[in-house]
């Protein structure tokens, strides 16, 4: 009996210890939503943030308490993270330091940050944050350091910041802040209205910040005068504003809007006192018709004001899109995010109706996958087009996906090369929900179709070599000539489209998979072997997978010369099959597609050499596309003369290909 009781006690204690040891799920959730709000992580800083991991203490940039039961510090500085600040960070109730200096964070500072009662250091400096400083930051009762410098913050300085009694360091320089510096020692008014505020007045604003040692308000658009209680600060802390001071140096009147500096408190109050009775007396003597005229005039002016306001709001609406944080029945889960559409100002935007007419009511489907549909169309009086339509439900579309879509369009729009598919424009409509990309049409289909479903004789050796060199030129352009570099999400024979004369065009349709995966919250990992998958709850930059593209190029070369798919259920992986031949020069010819009646041994050696350089297991040993392209161009002759010299049957192949 005693044994049973002892076992029960041990079980209860064990359960208690397990429960106590469990990391708070709301803090893990807060970190995961932080990662979701980051749409680009070029340095893979968040790559080990696994959404399925219940303990984030080993995640990069995360520091936990001694008991490993709470997050107390986030420090991810200079990581070039691009995205928004999640309001759910307030769930990290024990957080003491939030340091995200030197990233590319956009959007506004969530007011929920003010709920972090234990926060001692907030550093969001050197980002691209906009909007006002939330007054709620004045609720950070334990804060000692705030750094918001070098952003695009606007609006007035919240007087609530004066509530921070422990604040020692405040850096707000290099923003677009306006208004006065909220600080009054309680005696500033005595000279103008002697006796009215002479006694009983208490300090307000920053005059209450007795611990403030370092403060920088420079290079904003602040007006008024430097508060006397902040006179101990260096003059450089106020330079580059619109203050009533010549020293330190202020902005020119033109930069300050040409408005005269505000008058002093005393003169303002005196002016208010002088005319108080006079208007009342005049009003009482006005005739009825004059009063009626004033009322009508007032109504007209008010109407004009409302019309102007509505017009202004409409213009603003056209510049920005207001998108919910995420679609949910709960009002708490909504957040307004302004997605700047300026990045697409130079890209043609088609209406759904235009594309519907061009694609014959979207009946001319030339390709499909679970992620997208591809239509062929012809613009009125224009070129043939390929329209890729994203298959995603509107309820799964978030502000981050919208921003990613726009980034993707802007990214594709900068590509201009003879061996790259040209983006002609995009379509973005809400009713019905539509997200489409419009490319120039390549009339000969994909390289995959020709290699595995077409007639092999159509792709002669010379033609294949031209395709190889064309692909190499395109990738060299992506990797070396574009800044920042561009990579194909999944480089394979399906991403190579052929024109009427069999010139290759690289098109990245597979990036849609990333968007779909994000909306469905799939997970995966980035591979250095040619395929990008999506990290848990995150979209990583396409610029990361240059080495993956090089590996995939090697596999693609094998596919082109062998006519075999990269993976076959019966024969396995193409690379594994080919390795035994690639390592023995005497049997290289076994790799060649049996459909080919003729090939050049010298070319084959060069191709196999390049393949070995591409698929080297050590990524640091892989040669750049620029060098690989140079090897191919300098050692492979694709001229008609070279082809005729190599084979007596070449004329027949050339006739077939013409």
Automatic annotation (TrEMBL):
Q: Where is this region: Disordered?
A: 251-282
On the tree of life, the source organism's domain of life is Eukaryota
Task: List residues of the Protein kinase domain.
Answer: 360-636
Q: Write out the biased-composition intervals (Polar residues).
A: 264-273
Localisation per UniProt entry: Endomembrane system; Membrane
* Regions crossing the membrane: 289-313
Enumerate the UniProt keywords alphabetically: Leucine-rich repeat, Membrane, Repeat, Signal, Transmembrane, Transmembrane helix
What is the residue range of the signal peptide feature? 1-22
Family annotation (InterPro entries): Kinase-like_dom_sf, Leu-rich_rpt, LRR_dom_sf, LRR_N_plant-typ, Prot_kinase_dom, Ser-Thr/Tyr_kinase_cat_dom
Q: How does it sit in the membrane?
A: Single-pass membrane protein; Single-pass type I membrane protein
Query: Keyword Lyase on this protein?
Result: no
Pfam (any one): LRRNT_2
Does the record carry Transmembrane helix as a key word?
yes
Q: What is this protein called?
A: Protein kinase domain-containing protein
């Amino acid at each position: 009996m005693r044994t049973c009781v002892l076992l029960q006690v041990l079980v209860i204690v064990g359960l208690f210890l397990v429960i106590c040891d469990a990391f708070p799920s709301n803090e893990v959730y807060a970190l995961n939503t932080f990662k979701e709000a980051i749409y680009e992580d070029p340095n893979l800083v968040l790559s080990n943030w696994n959404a399925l991991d219940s303990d984030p203490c080993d995640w990069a940039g995360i520091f936990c308490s001694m008991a490993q039961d709470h997050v107390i510090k986030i420090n991810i500085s200079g990581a070039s993270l691009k995205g928004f600040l999640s309001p759910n960070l307030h769930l990290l109730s024990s957080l003491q330091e939030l340091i995200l200096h030197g990233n590319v964070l956009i959007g506004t500072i969530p007011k929920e940050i003010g709920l972090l009662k234990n926060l001692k250091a907030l550093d969001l400096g050197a980002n691209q944050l906009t909007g006002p400083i939330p007054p709620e930051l004045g609720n950070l009762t334990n804060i000692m350091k705030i750094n918001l410098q070098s952003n695009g913050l606007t609006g007035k300085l919240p007087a609530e910041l004066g509530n921070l009694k422990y604040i020692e360091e405040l850096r707000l320089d290099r923003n677009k802040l306006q208004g006065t510096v909220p600080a009054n020692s309680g005696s500033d008014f005595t000279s103008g209205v002697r006796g009215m505020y002479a006694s009983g007045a208490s300090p307000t604003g920053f005059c209450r910040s007795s611990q403030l040692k370092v403060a920088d308000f420079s290079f904003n658009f602040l007006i008024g005068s430097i508060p006397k209680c902040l006179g101990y600060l260096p003059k450089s802390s106020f330079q580059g504003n619109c203050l009533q001071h010549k020293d330190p140096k202020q902005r020119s009147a033109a930069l300050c809007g040409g408005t005269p500096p505000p008058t002093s408190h005393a003169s303002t109050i005196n002016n208010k006192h002088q005319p108080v009775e006079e208007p009342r007396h005049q009003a009482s003597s006005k005739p009825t018709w004059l009063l009626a005229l004033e009322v009508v005039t007032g109504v007209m002016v008010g109407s004009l004001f409302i019309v102007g306001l509505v017009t202004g709001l409409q213009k603003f609406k056209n510049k920005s899109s207001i998108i919910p944080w995420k679609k949910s029945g709960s009002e708490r889960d909504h957040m307004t995010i302004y997605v700047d559409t300026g990045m697409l100002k130079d890209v043609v935007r088609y209406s759904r109706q235009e594309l519907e007419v061009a694609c014959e009511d979207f009946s001319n489907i030339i390709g499909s996958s679970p992620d997208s549909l591809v239509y062929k169309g012809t613009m009125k009086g224009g070129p043939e087009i390929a329209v890729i339509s994203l298959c995603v439900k509107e309820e799964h579309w978030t502000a981050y996906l919208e921003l990613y879509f726009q980034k993707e369009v802007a990214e594709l729009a900068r590509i201009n090369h003879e061996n790259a598919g040209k983006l002609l424009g995009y379509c973005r409509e809400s009713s019905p929900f539509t997200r489409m990309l419009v490319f120039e049409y390549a009339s000969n289909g994909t390289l995959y179709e020709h290699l595995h479903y077409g007639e092999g004789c159509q792709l002669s050796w010379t033609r294949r070599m031209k395709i190889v060199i064309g692909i190499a030129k395109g990738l060299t352009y992506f990797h070396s000539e574009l800044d920042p570099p561009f990579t194909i999400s999944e480089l394979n024979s399906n991403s190579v489209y052929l024109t009427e004369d069999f010139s290759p065009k690289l098109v990245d349709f597979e990036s849609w998979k990333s968007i779909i995966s994000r909306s469905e919250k799939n997970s995966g990992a980035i591979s250095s072997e040619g395929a990008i998958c999506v990290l848990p709850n995150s979209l990583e930059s396409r610029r990361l997978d240059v080495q993956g593209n090089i590996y995939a190029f090697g596999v693609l070369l094998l596919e082109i010369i062998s006519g075999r798919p990269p993976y076959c259920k019966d024969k396995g992986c193409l690379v594994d099959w080919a390795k035994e031949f690639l390592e023995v020069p005497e049997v290289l010819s076994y790799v060649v597609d049996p459909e080919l009646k003729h090939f050049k041994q010298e070319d084959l050696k060069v191709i196999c050499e390049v393949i070995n350089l591409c698929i080297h297991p050590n990524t640091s040993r892989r040669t750049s596309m620029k060098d690989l392209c140079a090897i191919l161009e300098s050692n492979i002759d694709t001229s008609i003369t070279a082809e005729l010299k190599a084979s007596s049957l070449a004329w027949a192949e050339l006739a077939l290909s013409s």
